[in-house]
Amino acid sequence: MVTSSVAERAYGAATRSVLAALERNLVPDAVTRRLTRLLLASRLRQGYLPSAPLQLRSLLEFVHSLGEMPIAIETDKAKSQHYELPTAFFKLVLGRNLKYSSCYFTDGSSTLEDAEVAMMQLYCERAKLQDGQSILDVGCGWGSLSLYIAKKYRNCSVTGICNSTTQKAFIEEQCRENELSNVEIIVADISKFEMERSFDRIISIEMFEHMKNYKSLLKKISTWMKEDSLLFVHLFCHKTFPYLFEDDRAYFDHEGHIAEEAHQQWMERDWMVAEDEGVECSEREWEDVTEVMQVEVVKMAGMEAVEVEMEEVEVKVVKDSNDDDWITRYFFSGGTMPSANLLLYFQEDVSVVNHWLISGTHYARTSEEWLKRMDKSITSIRPIFEKTYGKESATKWIAYWRTFFIAVAELFGYNNGDEWMVAHYLFRKK
User: What letter does residue 141 receive in the DSSP assignment?
Assistant: First the structure.
C-alpha cells in the first residue's frame, strides 16, 4: 500500500498539469489554495532539520553564503516583474495609500485603508520619528510611507529612493496635490547607489528581501547614518530558517524537456526521501499514484473539457514553470526569504536596539484584500493587462496575479500565521 507521504509527492506531477490550465484561468481558487498549502508543507519539511545543532549549522552556512554574493542579483528582472504594470493597476488593487507591503489590522473591523495607516503609524513609533528630522526611505515604492511622514511631520525632510521613474512621477504628483515641499525622490538601484549625505532616521520596508549580501548592504546604509541615527527595517520572513528564491530552469533543455541527468537526480531524491520515511512502494505503484493524483486534481479543477494532450501539457509547463519555482520566475526573481533572526548575524556596522515579530495573519489578510479588490475591478484591469502584456496574454496574467495574491495569503496564513511572518528591527550605528 502506498502511504500518504508518497501520495503527496505525486502532487508534483499534478501541480504541473494544473499550472498549464492556470494559463487559461480554468483552475478554481480552492484547488490553487490546496496545492499552495501542499507546497508550503513541503517547504517546511525541507527547512526544519532533525536537531537544533543541525538547524543552527544550516543557518550559519546560509549566512556565510550570502557574504559571497553581490548585494543584489537580477535587479532588472525583479523590477520588471512588478513595475512594468502602470500605476493604474495598483490604484485599483492596493489601498488608498498604495502601500505594497504588509498592513496591520488592529481589530476585526479594520478596512485595508485603516490597516495601511496602522502599520505606518507603528513604523513611526518604533523608528522613534520626531518632527524636524531628516528621513531616508530606502525602497519607497509608490511613496506610501514617505508621503505619510511628510504629512504627519511637516518639518521633516523626506528623501525616498525607488527604482522606477513611474513611481517617482506618481509620488511627485501626490506632493503637488497635497502641497508638500518636504519630499525628494531619487530613482536608483540601491545595490549600486552611493551618496555623501547622512540622515537622522533611515527606514526600509520590504526591500531587504530583494537583497543578498546583507553585510555589504548594511555597511553602505551605515555610511548614510549620523552618529545618533537609527535604522528601522521591516521585512517578511520565516520564523526559523532562511532560503533563496531560485529558478531551476537549468534542469531543462532548450526545448523545455527535463534533462536526463536532472531527471535521474529527482528520481533518486524522491526514492531517498521515501526510504528515509520508511515508505515502501514499487515503481509501478509510484506511477499509479502519480496518475491517480493527476486525474483527481483535474476533476477538482473541472478541467475535463480541456482538450490538451498530457504530453503537450508537460512540455509547456516544464518550460514555463517548475512547481514552487513559479513564484520566483514570475514575481520574485533574485529574492530571499530571511529567517526572523537573520539580520542579527550582520552587526559589523550597526547594532540591534530592538526586534519585533508580527503574526503572518496580518499579511494574509492584506493579500486577501488585494485579491478582493482585483476581482471587483477585473473589467477595468483587463484593458490594462491587454495593453501591458498583449491581448492574447491578458487572461494568463490575470490568472497569474490572482494566483500570486492567493499564494501570498496562504503563505502568511499558514499555521495561523506562525510560520511565515513579518519582522521589525531597530538598529543604531556602531
Answer: T
Tell me the per-residue pLDDT of 112-127, one tens digit each, with 9 for 90 and over: 999 999 999 999 999 9
> Which residue ranges make up each domain of the chain?
4-40+248-321, 75-241+338-429
Least Cα distance to 232 among 356, 99, 114 occurs for 356
CA 430 – CA 215 distance, rounded (Å): 14
Q: Strand (E) positions, 293-367?
A: 336-337, 350-358
Cβ distance 185 to 211 under 8 Å? no
The sheet carrying 225-238 orders its strands as: 183-187, 157-162, 134-138, 199-205, 225-238, 420-429, 350-358
- Count of C-beta atoms within a 10 Å radius of residue 383: 12
CA dihedral 396, 398, 401, 407 (to 10 degrees): -80
Packing angle between helix 29-47 and helix 283-300, nearest 10 degrees? 140
Torsion-angle region of 351 (φ positive above 0: left; ψ -120 to 50: alpha; else: beta): beta
Q: In whole angstroms, give the CA distance from residue 267 to residue 264.
A: 5
- pTM of the complete model: 0.81
Its CATH class, for the domain covering 75-241+338-429, is: alpha beta
CA distances, 197 to each of 8, 128, 138, 219, 315 (Å): 54, 20, 14, 15, 53
**367 within 8 A of 412, measured Cβ to Cβ:** yes
